[in-house]
Amino acid sequence: MTPKHNKVVKHPFLRLLRYGRKYRVSIWQATICSILNKLFDLAPPALIGAAVDVVVKPQNSIIARFGITDVFQQLLIICALSAVIWALESIFEYAYERLWRNLAQNIQHDLRLDAYSHIQDLELAYFEERSTGTLLSILNDDINQLERFLDIGANEILQVITTVIIIGGAFLVLIPNVAWMSILPIPIILWGSIAFQKRLAPRYAAVREKVSLLNSRLANNLSGITTIKSFTTEAYELERLRQESEAYRQSNQTAIALSAAFIPVIRIVILAGFTAILLFGGMEVVSGDLAVGTYSVLVFLTQRLLWPLTRLGQTLDLYQRAMASTNRVMDLLDTPIAIHSGKLSLPTEKIRGEINLDRITFAYNQFDPIFKNLSLHIPAGKTIAIVGSTGSGKSTIVKLLLRLYEIQAGKITLDGIDIKDIFLNDLRRAIGLVSQDVFLFHGSVKENIAYGSPEYSLEEIITAAKIAEADDFIRRLPQGYDTIVGERGQKLSGGQRQRIAIARAVLKNPPILILDEATSAVDNETEAAIARSLERITQNRTTIAIAHRLSTIRNADCIYVLEFGQIVEQGTHEELLAKQGIYANLWRVQTGVRNRKY
């Protein structure tokens, strides 16, 4: 769905209907059951009126017109009809409850999956501009709010509409001269409901925004709990959370102050219609223009007509909350996907791994370009290294190769094929990334090594761990390969996480391996272990090593020195040292060598 569609379908309810087109059969079934349930629910007052007529004037009752004049028989018929009507009412109540609730669950389930799937397809720039808490609020709280409305509110609205149509029509047929007295409050109530709705809409939109900020704060603080403890800022963060929570509370109170006033106001309008029927309808009975049974029906129906309208306040409250949430969810689904997959399939086993960056230009959003006409050739099966100062664009190259961002000009090719033309999953399957910031999922060690490839056996997982020099420390863990690593792998050290990440890349067995500062945060012993494993896994595959520690890449086939988005030096370790340029200076700084004897 594109922004153009969003301009055509603006109202959140219409946007929801548009999304729910595949559920139209279920919606119709639930709607019919709700209407039928209300029809049978409105029948008992008519039976009461008929029973009154049987008792007061049995010879002129409705049933007597069918030739049954015995009072007992007439009452038996009314009892039998009551049993049938109550049974049908119960059956359709069960049906609509089940249908609406299942529909709510199905839409909630599909909407959450669709929203999450769409989020996964968005480029990294989208996430850099939004907090995790905001997205979690949409995926959980907003979608749950929509489910609550479908569970309860949709049926309430349908039954109120059915009540107004059926009872209003009965009044016009039975007592057209005083029917307007009971019907008159309805347009006033509806007008008031719409007025309340318009005033509630911005208030509930503000509530959704405030809860989003609150969730962002909570998610951020829980992720940074170590930093909070180390800086002893617990009281400071508690105060910031209190302010966010207070803003949410105040926003809710503003909405509640208006929504709570709805029912008391509506009660007064209902009272006017009810007393009018009591008074003027009673006078009609006294004058002989209205039967006692009919009068009884009217009094009951007036109460049944007007009193449910008091629930419009709660229903509108649910509706407005749901519509505010619908807008946020649909806005997420309407977010255009900037990076589209190519159509060309490229099986991993057919990839040689030759990469070419041809005069590419790239900038993050509105910032100055990181690269301008950058060209870089990476031969198949070779190990190349990229070094340079912080901010020179080293890690950006990785993101561009994975198409996490899109270049503005130039071309990146893999084996001579523009990566924009390659099926995105095939491109990313061909690349194994071991990054500086290793992310492990909450689960066991073996699940993290085999992440995304559950078909691998334990023997294959252990083999990959041995190649990554990780098997020894894994076996020393409390449950070995079944040890739970904790959220983000917090139970493991940095070096242990790095080696598990390398084992994961080994098991993936990609034709292209990218090591993005893979040893920057480990000790010398761990670095040596990682270096030994890398010597084994870089054989016969294209390897791109990005490093600050030059000792880890001195054996690369070619080293590129990147500064301010341009290649300023290139060559082997020895060739670059001989040039006495930027690389040689970096080497002297890191090794402490101050003369030319390397």
Provide a descriptive summary of the structure in words.
InterPro entries: AAA+_ATPase (IPR003593), ABC1_TM_dom (IPR011527), ABC1_TM_sf (IPR036640), ABC_transporter-like_ATP-bd (IPR003439), ABC_transporter-like_CS (IPR017871), P-loop_NTPase (IPR027417), Type_1_exporter (IPR039421). It holds the Pfam family ABC_membrane. Residues 355-589 form the ABC transporter domain. This is Xenobiotic-transporting ATPase. The chain crosses the membrane at residues 157-190, 255-280. The protein is an alpha/beta fold and 598 residues long. It folds into 3 domains: 15-334, Up-down Bundle (ABC transporter transmembrane region fold); 346-430 and 516-522 and 542-598, 3-Layer(aba) Sandwich (Rossmann fold); 436-509, Rossmann fold (3-Layer(aba) Sandwich). It contains 23 helices and 10 strands. The chain has helices spanning 3-8, 12-19, 24-41, 43-56, 71-121, 124-128, 132-174, 179-183, 185-223, 225-230, 234-259, 262-286, 292-306, 312-334, 394-401, 424-429, 445-449, 458-467, 471-475, 494-508, 524-537, 573-579, 582-591; strands at residues 355-362, 371-378, 383-387, 409-414, 417-418, 431-435, 512-516, 542-546, 558-563, 566-571. Strands 6-7-8-3-9-10 form a 6-stranded mixed sheet, with helices on both faces. A 4-stranded antiparallel sheet has the order 2-1-4-5, with no helix packed on it. A hairpin with a 2-residue loop joins strand 4 (409-414) and strand 5 (417-418). The longest helix has 51 residues, at 71-121. The model is unreliable at 1-8 (pLDDT under 50).
